[in-house]
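Need residues for this backbone.
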């Protein structure tokens, strides 16, 4: 499981020109799954995300978590995180989990995050348009398995 974490001032996701998810200060998460990912991977990354200290404290030092600032999350499914570009110029997505299995894990991931924070999300499998104001910019790649 991979998650791209972006610190955000304001972000939204639209499908067919309709905003389906929107946050102010918080995190945008691009979330991808691969074969073998389980609830254990989700638990690890949920814990990492909610405790990741990437927000500034009163001394402008990244020392606060999203919980500390009472931020929100915009979660976006992103199978292309498992693109393989080692052969040729057209990415292969064979390492991405099949959508039927991935949607179950994506829903579980969002449900677990929702126990701690407000979570907005895109529509799994839809053609989405993201509007992200990356704060910093701060972008961190997290993986459940090294």
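Answer:
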């Amino acid at each position: 499981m991979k998650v791209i974490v972006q610190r955000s001032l304001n972000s939204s996701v639209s499908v067919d020109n309709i905003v389906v998810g929107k946050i102010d200060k918080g995190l945008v998460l691009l979330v991808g799954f691969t074969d073998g990912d389980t609830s254990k991977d989700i638990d690890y990354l949920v814990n990492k995300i909610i405790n990741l200290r990437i927000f500034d404290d009163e001394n402008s030092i990244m020392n606060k978590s999203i919980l500390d600032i009472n931020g929100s999350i915009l979660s976006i499914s992103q199978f292309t995180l498992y693109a393989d570009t080692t052969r040729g110029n057209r990415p292969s997505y064979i390492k991405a989990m099949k959508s039927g299995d991935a949607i179950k894990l994506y829903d579980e991931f969002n449900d677990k995050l929702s126990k701690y924070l407000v979570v907005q999300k895109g529509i799994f499998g839809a053609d989405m348009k993201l509007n992200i104001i990356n704060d910093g910019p701060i972008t961190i790649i997290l993986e459940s398995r090294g």
